[in-house]
Amino acid sequence: MRSTIKTELLDELLAGVSSPDDLLGDGGVFRQLKKALMERALGAELTHHLGYEKGAAPAGRARGNSRNGHTAKTVLTDDGQIALSVPRDRAGTFEPKLVPKGVTRLEGFDGKIINLYARGLSVREIQAHLKDMYGTEVSPDLISRVTDAVLEEVREWQSRPLDSVYPIVFFDAIRVKMRDEGIVRNKAVYVALALDTEGQKHVLGLWIEQTEGAKFWLKVMNELKGRGLNDILIAVVDGLKGFPEAIGVVYPETLVQTCIVHLIRNSLAFVSWKDRKSLVQDLKHVYRAANAELALEWLDGFEDRWGKQYPTIAPMWRRAWDHVTPLFAFPPAIRKMIYTTNAVESLNRSLRKIIKTRGSFPTDDAALKLLYLAIQNAGVRWRRPVEWTAAMGQFAILFGDRFMLSAR
């Protein structure tokens, strides 16, 4: 857009500028110009409200209202605090639109607070940042009020309607520290990440619970059902206690698959570094086998080789076997999407990056606010799986009408 500001005016404004501070500082040209323009706009608003220009006294008397001095008001802007002189009318009916009554923060300032909060900064860190950048003193109470306004967005997002069918939903958890009656406790934040029929990723919701179990998961499943999710073709979980029972009640046709990545990670918990590479290679034979029968043979062989040195690994896989074997009903294109869980791992890395500097949260709501903002604002990248085109055809064959209904 071509500038409409005359060169002569710019020259006049810059006449006394000899340093960056003269232009950008607290008393610089930019701040003075912003103040002058805002006060001129407020004066124009009052003129429009009264219906006559300043100084037209007879017209004012005829209308029964007139100007009545000014009120000092300090507002917070993107550039810091600005002290304004806001005009008044004698009848008290003037309602400025630029700076409405009761408003002390201009549009954009709250967004700065929320963006800083979404990056994981604490209330004190936000205070310090605003002070350093804009010379603005902001109270902790103000910051809390601004970020608390996000909770309404969270509730709307958490109750929004869902698709009727999702081919794959990953259920996983990240751990956060909560302050509970002066004691810091670990709580799990459960995340549901779904792939829709186009291969696009959606976070269906966030749930916080101190202990997991069938009762908790039944509540989550019923909530998803109530939001319109009628069917899940494959649910991928990390050995969540009580989950298979709960999902079987609400979604009886859903295949529950143990997350292979988490199973491998748990298997390596007590394995020495020198053995990890060869041990993982042997486990790959198990979950990449052509079918369940061959996979069990590979697991027997794994136990023969590693059982004495690491006696807990093979039994761990056998205990989870009923929820490992669904994997073998699928072709490689679908298997890879299930056992790699790159989508949910990428999401969790983004969330952990945001919360790692926070120490602990005072309430569940504080954690939900931050995680929601991290999902919405912190640059989580959604990329369609490269195998999805091939997988769609396989889903159509394997699940028939259940998949076709979701694709409509």
Structure description:
This protein has 408 residues and is of the alpha/beta class. It has 2 domains: 106 residues, no CATH class; 242 residues, no CATH class. 50% of the residues lie in helices and 17% in strands. It contains 19 helices and 7 strands. It has a 5-stranded mixed sheet, sandwiched between helices. A two-stranded antiparallel sheet has the order 1-2. A hairpin with a 5-residue loop joins strand 4 and strand 5. Helix 5 packs across helix 17. The radius of gyration is 30 Å and the shape is elongated. The mean pLDDT is 78.
Q: What's the arrangement of secondary structure elements?
A:
Layout: H1 7-13, H2 20-24, H3 29-50, H4 57-63, E1 67-77, E2 80-89, H5 109-118, H6 123-134, H7 140-148, H8 150-158, E3 165-180, E4 183-195, E5 201-209, H9 214-226, E6 231-237, H10 243-250, E7 255-258, H11 260-267, H12 273-287, H13 292-306, H14 313-319, H15 332-340, H16 342-355, H17 364-377, H18 388-399, H19 401-407
Parallel strand pairs: 3-6, 6-7
Antiparallel strand pairs: 1-2, 3-4, 4-5
Helix pairs in contact: 5-17, 9-10, 12-13, 16-17
Short descriptors:
two-stranded antiparallel ribbon, 7 strands, five-stranded mixed β-sheet, 408 residues, 50% helix, alpha/beta, 2 domains
Give me a quick take on this structure.
This protein is an alpha/beta fold and 408 residues long. The protein has helices spanning 7-13, 20-24, 29-50, 57-63, 109-118, 123-134, 140-148, 150-158, 214-226, 243-250, 260-267, 273-287, 292-306, 313-319, 332-340, 342-355, 364-377, 388-399, 401-407, and strands spanning 67-77, 80-89, 165-180, 183-195, 201-209, 231-237, 255-258. Helix content is 50%, strand content 17%.
